[in-house]
Each structure stands twice: as structure tokens, then as C-alpha cells.
Amino acid sequence: MGEKIGVYVCHCGSNIAGVVDVEEVARWAKEKFPEVTVSRDYKFMCSSPGQELIENDIKDLGLTRVVVAACSPHLHEKTFRGACQRAGLNPYFFEMASIREQVAWVTKDKLQATIKSKALVDGAIRRVINHESLEPIKVDITADTLIVGGGVAGIQAALEIADSGSHVILVEREPSIGGHMAQFDKTFPTLDCSACILTPKMFDIGNHPNITLLTWSEVESVDGYVGNFEIKIRKKARMVIEDLCTGCLVCQEKCPKRVIDDVYEVGMAKRKAIYVPFPQAVPNKPVLDTENCTFFQTGKCQVCQKVCPTGAIDYEQKDQLLEFKVGNIILATGYDLFDARRIPQYGYGKLPNVITSLEFERLTNASGPTNGEILLADGRKPETIAVVHCVGSRDKNYNEYCSSICCMQSLKFAHLAREKTGAQVYNFYIDIRTPQKDYEEFYNRILDEGTLFIRGKVGEITNIPRTAEEEGKLIVQAFDTLAGIQRRIPVDLVILSAALEPRSDSVEVGKLFGIACGAQGWMIERHPKLDPVATMTEGVFIAGCAQGPKDIPASVSQGAAAAARVISKIQQGQVLLEPIRASIDENRCSGCRICNNLCPFTAITFDEIKEVSSVNVALCQGCGTCVAACPAGAISGTHYSDKQILSQIEGILDPALQLSK
Amino acid sequence: MSDNPNNQFEPLILGFTCNWCSYRAADNAGLARLKYPPNIRLIRLMCSGRLDPQFILKGFAEGADGVLVTGCHPGDCHYVEQNYKTMRRFKLLHKTLDQMGVKRGRLKLVWASAAEGMILANEIEKFVEEVRQLGPLNWPKWDKPLEVVADYEVVVEEK
Amino acid sequence: MSTNGKPKFSMYWAASCGGCEISVLNIHEKILEVDANFEVVFWPVAMDSKYKDLEAMEDNSILLTLFNGGIRNDENEEIARLLRKKTQIMVAFGSCATEGGIPGLGNLGTMKSIFDTAYFGVSTENPEQIYPKTSFESQFGQLHLPKMYPVLRTLDQVVPVDYFMPGCPPEPHQIGAVIDLVIQVLNGKAELPPKGSVIGAGTSTVCDECKRTRTEKKIKKFMRIQDVERIDPEICLFDQGIPCNGPATSSGCDARCPAVGAQCIGCYGPAGGVIDYGARLMSAFASVIDSNDPDEIESILESIPDPAGQFYRFNLAKSLLRSSKYAWKGE
User: Fold this and answer.
1) Residue C52: how many other CB atoms lie within 10 Å
2) Mean of the pLDDT values across residues C95-109?
3) For residue A283, is the peptide bond before it cis, meaning its omega torsion is within 30 degrees of 0?
4) CA distance readout (Å), B71 to A37, A236, A649, B15, B130
5) What is the model's pLDDT at position B153?
6) CA distances from C212 to B68, C233, C255 (A)
7) Testing the interface with A: which of B7, B14, B50, B125 to mutate, by most A Cβ within 10 A?
């Protein structure tokens, strides 16, 4: 059957028509191709009258294909597909040639521009003849949502979705939710108590009828696709029967074994072998650390079991593998703190009074190891304190990016330290960055309080004195770029504002969920500006520091934004997926398994019984890599078929459209 | 150089772009009104991973003097890692084409992110010049009689 | 041979090795059915016949011609055209006629290089340095030798072909099946497949018929089969790093080579719908190279020293490029 094609060449005002002879392109298309029923040029094809032109021609002339030569399809492909659809033509019977971005705007010579435009239109016409009618793929959405990570971003997302009436499974690998925020003392710039604002939210999570909270648990496997993910979660044995435990914590009190707490107290204090990490923990049910438990190591003790009034201690408990079906997933897996030992000249780990930001948070926290008193290793109060910015950030040797929170955090440290100890505080900074609401005001406040600022990157922190004045002190050496001099400042305490880094396992976690991490290791969003919480995998969203360094307000915003995206998907009940997909012809597939390893979205599976591979349409993202790899030609890809592309090549390279000499 | 007859020759270049990075780089070059030679004609694929070596061979067989393959930078692939597969295929095809008498300079791989319109435009300009210096490829249209397509002499003659 | 009203059959041998003819004889007793159902009118390798006799026949008077060999010289072309004129069903028989086959590899080099190799190569004893001529004055008058073309063409690149039958040579059981089919058609019991079809082959690839166990593919090095210390008899040869062309090659041969531990070299040609066999293979091979490092990829590719030979062994003349540039430029 001969196709009836409409070709529309846009002037785009003078944007295209100023360089390309649009009338000639339209005339030529009609003359060259017998299939071209109508060929027009028009001032603005994307305008309402422009679109109506197409719609009317489809209706009046019975067009079966439409080609628009105008701007980039990224701008108006949707527009014109819509026009086709309104006129009753399948929107995939449409093709666009970019003669503005690829010709008019980049070509000097008008004659050559016209020839190149014809070549692109020629390719588009030959391609569109081979187009197939396609329908968006409809997939039902399971209303339940999986949220990975119980920090503030995950908490916010979980509450938003649960409050909207849908069920959430919140998975946290530590014994309690709360994340890094639970470790902090005060939050900038308002200086309200971190625990005071976080605890109620944590409590809500623990008591929400729509939230299944799984702490001390990790996601083991993810199968399926948007709307229909099948998740396996390993719930690690706590050795505590949660249904029986009342949270009285007698076990913790009586446990004779003390262990250094590397997680919550960042090594600054001890906990018991059976413990909740901190008093406001949610759930308020302990975990038995079998690696350090006397009973598990020597077979003797069992004190916890003896003292437990409800018989909740179960030494035989095993890991459980729980299965869930969810429609959407939010990853809020947070960050790791930069290991300051990697900068040996700062002495962290060797010099006792050089501490990291997180250690200072614990030091100044009323529930911390010193009950909130800022003390040196020997118990003295510091008289001078240095805060070093950008430790491991904005440094090509470690991380090129800005960690975004360190300036404000360092200003906060300066305030808290000064307030509590009266010490003189020096802030060593490269630039001060305070771009959010009320942040600059906070900076000015700290300046007014008398904190001293030295603009220069710290070269070294040492305890080797050069003068009597430096005796017994830590000396911070930096080049003051404002004064143009080397400074050596003797201090008692150095706080390193360490960089935020991607979780050490972020790439593996990303792979598990079929999403990518950038070169630095942060999870990649679908679009950095316009789609910051979605990912390339439909139904998987990211929030908080997993996506990149950010502070609490930004994490909460992203948690809420990701929740909004999920809620909207749940409300739609179905998702429509772009029907650009690969499929395998079972009759031609010989099961050679070349393609099996090529799909990063695990859309290709091998059926051992039939000995053929198949593509899961909902998992497939349509990249076409397997289509190009199948040696038997058994895999085809919609909308980018061999036939469509080969015919486009023939058109684009038509010898009649060679550039003139 | 000025004596080179190829200086007068306008090469025909076929280019392949991916939907997410290099096609957008072309958009970006347009938005910035960067000028580059009109010898290149781009085809959009969803991913450079879709680039079947057949398309490149087809390009040469249909009269392209050079073929430019473009995609997202390694590690930045919209589809996680598919451009590595492009890289592998490109290298193998390069090697085979070399054996077939298609000089390596006629096939080029360029990574360009969506923001790198400038890089893409510069690479196109460079590539057009490189192919211009190599001269026309003129792969035969085989549907014509052999006497027309090939510059051969009958070697079966008296020696 | 009598003119007994039986449909006429012919077979011809152009640029090929003769294996196809032997393969026809390999169908054993079935050859008697050929004789029972056909009158063999032209088959130079099996009976005495002259081109003049062929010329004298009426157009379309031969029902079936099995044409093997590619078109490498003007004699090949002349007889191909002549047989086409005289034949109703023209079958490109075997790899060479279908896709060029081994003689098609000559399309990688120039005519001169081919002649030099043939007449002065290490395997040729030619102390008088004789070089062939297209015409020669003999005691019987002027003699002519066929004129060689710069490239080998497949049969369908010269004349229209009704059916393609791949294989180097086609397997006897496939030949038998095709003969059965034609006889059934003659008796009105079956219909011929659509013109242009591949016959005597499967619809899938060699892997489909191969009994070896396959896993997901990740290749760190390709190895020549003679360099493999011990070939596992159960596991897919490709998975063992042996560059087996089975995944891209049409089924129909019962995977005879892989069954005995030799990799498929692709004589049954591309699977249906594939435009360029070698390109498909290259894409597949490269895709499963297990490295993202440019230098490592290069070094893995070094283990394929002759890519054109690996990927286009039988298919070069039918590929998109058809020949190397050297062949048609004469350089």
C-alpha cells in the first residue's frame, strides 16, 4: 500500500527561513517522492494554526505519515505527535528532521544549508514510510512502596506516602532509623536541637499503621519492573523476639560486655553487646551483637536471657528472607564521611586532639560521651580551636566537588564551641558558601561573635613547636591568601570538616536497583535540573545524599519530592511507558546467550527449558544494545528497527543531495 | 597542501548520535550558533549501543566518505554502560575495515555530553578536514557493470 | 538418457571447488529418484555436454538448475545468463553461488595478487615462469581463455535467482529433502516456497542444533582452536574462548563441526533477515568482550588476527561492502 505523506517545513520565523530556502525544500519533497501527498512550508509549525494545518491535512487528505522539518525533536516531537493523535493518526507515524539546530543555526552557506536540509528530510521521509503503529505500554502499579534508608530523607518520604494512605516498607541496615541526623547536636542555621525535631518523626514511623519498618535489614535482590518489583529483604537475626520485647532495656543495662561504638558514637564511647544505639532509637528494641557477645564467643554468660522479663531473648534466631511486591522504590541511602586519615599531613588518627566533624557533633551533644562538654583528650577545656573547611572536598587529590554542608556546619561549630567554652575559634576556609535562606545572616552572626576567619587551605597540622608559644599546642599552618603570608596558629583542638562521600557500596547498590552512579559515586538522577529525584529506571527514585551532598532541608525536600512522584504514580494506577522496546523472536532465537549479559536493567532472561532468551518489556529501557548484538537478527527494536535506520541512511546519503563544489 | 586536489573535495560524512548526550550536544551547538561544515548528516539512535556495525558499513556502501560515531562519555551512559559496548564494537570494526582498505581515519569515535556542543562542533570540523585530506572513498554502486565500478585492468595478458 | 517427457534438470559448476557436486552424489540411493523423476540434460561434471547444446535448447525448457560456484570470470557469467534463460527454477546451490564462499575471499586482494600467488606462489612449481594469457595462438588456431573479473560476484548479483541453498557443501540430508520437495511439487502434493527463499536450511542458528551447554558470555581472550590445551566436550566452544561462528550462522547442518569439537566457520550463511553476516558477528563478538578498558579491549581483539577471514569467510561477496577497496581499485 502506498503511503500518503505530509511534509511540513517550518520557517521558525526567520530562524530557519533566514538560512534555508524552505519553499524549495517543500517543493522538492513533493516533486521527488510520489508518496508525498502534500508538502507545505509555514511560519511557525508549532503554533496552534501550524498544528491545525497538520490535523486538517490528516483528516482531509487521509495522510498516513507526517514529517515535520523544524527544530530539534527534543523540543517539539511531543507537540507534533499530539497533533497526529488528535487527528486520529498513530503518533508514531511521525518523524522530525532537525533543520534548525542541525542546519540553519550551524551553517553559513545558504545553498549548502538547503541541500543539507533536503538530505535530512529525505532520510526522514524514507524512515517514516517504514514506521509502525505503536501503543504506549500500560503497566499496573502496585500501591506499596519500598524505601531504602531510614535517614531524614527516607523518613520524610515514608511519612508522606504513608499519610497519603499507601503502604510503605522502610528498610534500614542499622538497628535504628535516624541516620546521621540522629547523631547531630544542633542544626544550622536555626540552632534547634536535632533530636528534638527528628525524634517525633522517627516515633511516627514506628507507630504508623501504613509503615512496615525493617531495621537491621538489607535488600538482597530486586526483580521486576516499575509497578511490579519483587523484593527480597534479609532481616538479620537480632536474637531478640520483637513481638515479646517491651523495650525496657534491662538486658542492655545488665550486659557485662562493653564494646567501642564505631557507628553511632564514631568510636568515642562504648556500648553494650546487646544494645539500642541511642535512647530515642526507633524501634526501641535492642540488637545482640553476636561478634562481641560473651555467650556467642565463649558459650558462657546468658545474662540478658536471665534478666529479660518477657523471655524475648532467642539465641537461636536466624536471618529471615522476607519477600515483598512493591510498585515503586525510593533510595535514600545517604553518605559516608570522608576518612580524614587519607590526608596524613592533617594528623587525624595520630594527633589526639584532631577530630572530625561527626566526632565534634558527638562531643557537643548533651547525650554524647562527655554529656555535651567540649573537652580535650586529657579532659582540659580548649582555649583555642581551629575549624578546617573543605577536608577532602574541593581538592583534586580527593574529591573535586564541594560537599555543600561544610561551610555552614563549620560556622555552627564555631558558634557552639565559643558558646560552650569561650574559646577563640579560627575558621580556615577557601571560600565561604552560604547560598540558602537565612544562611548568610548566620555567617554574619558568627562574624559578629568574633570568630576569626583565615582564607587559606591548611597545609599541615603538627604538634612540633617552633616557638615557646607553640609548645604543647597543635599548630595549624596555612597560607593566608588575603594577607599574602604564611600563618602558624597554635590551637588546642582542631575540627576537620570532612567531606561527604558516596556510600562505599553505592555502585553495587545502584546496580542492584538498575541505576547508575556518576564518576564520583553519587547516584545519577534522570535530569539534574528538571527531574532531580527520578532515575533512568522507571519506578526507582532517589532522595537525600545518595544523589549528592546536601543539607537537611534539601534532603527533606527531596524525600518529599520523591514521595510526591510515587504518590502520583500510585494515583494514576497505571504507568504508560514509551513503546521503544526490544523483543526477541522465539522462533529465531537459538539461545546462544550472547545477549544475556548485555542488559544493565536485567530485562533479558534465559529460559532454560525452551532454551531461548526473552525481553521483559517493562524492564527494557529501549537502548537497543541487544538488538545490535544479536548475531541471528532475532532481536528487533521498535521505532529504531534496522529497516527504519537503513532507509534513513539511504535517504540522508542520496547522491543527488551531495554538497555542491 | 595547497596542491592537494582533495582540497576541492567536499566529503560526505554520516554521523550517529545517541538521544541523550551527543544529539543534545548537536542541539546545544545549534543553540550557541556554533558554525560547522554542512558535510555531516546526523542520525539519531536511542543509544550508541544501538549502533549496529551494519549501519556503518551501509554508510560507506551508500557513498559516505567518513562515518562519525558519537555517544555519551564512558561512565555517563544514559543506559548505565552501553557505550562501552559501542567502544568494543567500534574497535573491532575499525580493525576489520582497515583490512578491507577503508583507512582508519574514515571512521571516528567521539564522546560528547549534552553540554559539549562546542566539542562536537570542533570534532565535526576536524573530522571533515581529515576526511577531505583522505579524498573521496567512492565505494562502488555495485548495480552498475563491473567495467564502470572498478578501475581494473585485465591482468591475464602476455607477460 | 532419453527425452521421455520427464522434467529437465541441470547442474553447473562455476567458481567453486567441486564439493557441491560430490555432495549431490552423497545423497546415495536418492540419486536414483533424481534419475527417475528428471531428465538430466546438462551436467558437465557428470556427463558430456556442450555449451552449444545448451544454447540450442528452448528458453525455460529446463525445470530445475542447481548452480554452484560464484561468478569470477566471463565464462561463469555467460553460462549463468544462458542457464537462467533456459531454466524455470534457478537455485543458487552451495555457499559460493549463494554468498561467494571461499573463492569470494579473493575479493580481499587484487587480481594481480591472486595470479601471483597462483602461478608463482610457494605451492606452485612453475620453472618456466608461465603466465596465462586470454588468447593463445596454437597449432589448432586461436584459443581463448576466460577473462577474469576484479571481484567475484554471487549468482544473484548477476542473474535473478529463485532459491538459495547454503552450505559448503549443502548437507546430503538437506539436498535429499529439497529433491523430495520438488518431486512432491511435481506430483501436485506440495507447493514451492516463495521465490527468493532460502531452502535446505533451518530457521534458527547453529546453536539451536548444537548440544553443548551455553552460559552467559564473557570473553577475556579468543583462542585459536589448536592453541586450546583441552577442549571441554560439553561446554559451548564460544564460552571456552574459541571464536565459533555458530551464533550467527543459519541452522541446517546439525551442528556437525561443533559436535566434533571444531568451531563453526559459518558455511551455512546468515540467519534469515540478516543483511551483513560479518557485521552481525562482529557486533556479537565485540559485545561480549569482558572489558571496559580501551587498551585491554585492543589487546583482546589482537587475538582475532584476521577479522575479515573470521567474520566473512564465506560471506564476503554478499556483504554490504562486497570486497576490499584493493580489489576494485586494483591497488
Assistant:
1) 7
2) 96
3) yes
4) 36, 43, 18, 11, 20
5) 56
6) 40, 8, 10
7) B50
B137 interaction partners in chain A (CB closer than 8 Å): none
Least confident of B140-149, C107-116, C213-222, C258-267: B140-149
Whether omega for the bond prior to residue C305 falls within 30 degrees of 0, making it cis, is no
Distance in angstroms (rounded) separating the CA atoms of residues A55 and A62: 10
CATH of C8-102+150-186, one of 3.40.50.300, 3.40.640.10, 3.40.50.700, 3.30.1360.30: 3.40.50.700
- Chain B residue numbers with beta carbons less than 8 Å from the beta carbon of A637 are 50
Mean pLDDT of the A60-85 span: 96
* pTM > 0.80: no
Taking an 8 Å cut-off on Cβ atoms, the answer to whether B52 and A658 are in contact is no
DSSP helix/strand/coil, A129 = helix
Contact call for B96 and C285, based on CB within 8 A: no
- Backbone angle region of A561, left / alpha / beta, with phi > 0 → left and psi within -120 to 50 → alpha: alpha
Beta carbons within 8 Å of C123's beta carbon, 6+ residues apart: none
Q: Give the separation between CA A525 and CA A527, rounded to whole angstroms.
A: 5
B chain contacts of residue C297, beta-carbon cutoff 8 Å: 87-88, 91
Cβ of C204 within 8 Å of Cβ of A587? The answer is yes
Residue-wise pLDDT for A420-443, tens only, equals: 999 999 999 999 999 999 999 999
Nearest chain B CA: its distance from A464 CA (Å): 45
Q: How confident is the model at residue C189 (pLDDT cuts 50, 70, 90)?
A: very high
Q: What is the CATH number of the domain that holds B112?
A: 3.40.50
The verdict on C251 touching A (C-beta cutoff 8 Å) is: yes
CA A589 to chain C, closest CA, distance in angstroms equals: 6
Residue spans per domain, chain C: 8-102+150-186, 206-329
Cα A501 off chain centre by: 13
- Are B146 and C111 a contacting pair at CB < 8 A? no
Q: Give the three-state DSSP class for C232.
A: coil
Q: What's residue B150's pLDDT?
A: 66
Contact of C45 with chain A, judged by CB distance below 8 Å, is answered with no
Contacts of A595 in chain C (CB under 8 A): 287
For residues B27 and A103, the answer to whether their CB atoms sit within 8 Å is no
Handedness of CA C55, C60, C63, C68 (dihedral sign): positive
Structural domain boundaries, residue B115: 13-134
pLDDT by residue (tens digit) across A505-517?
A: 998 898 889 887 8
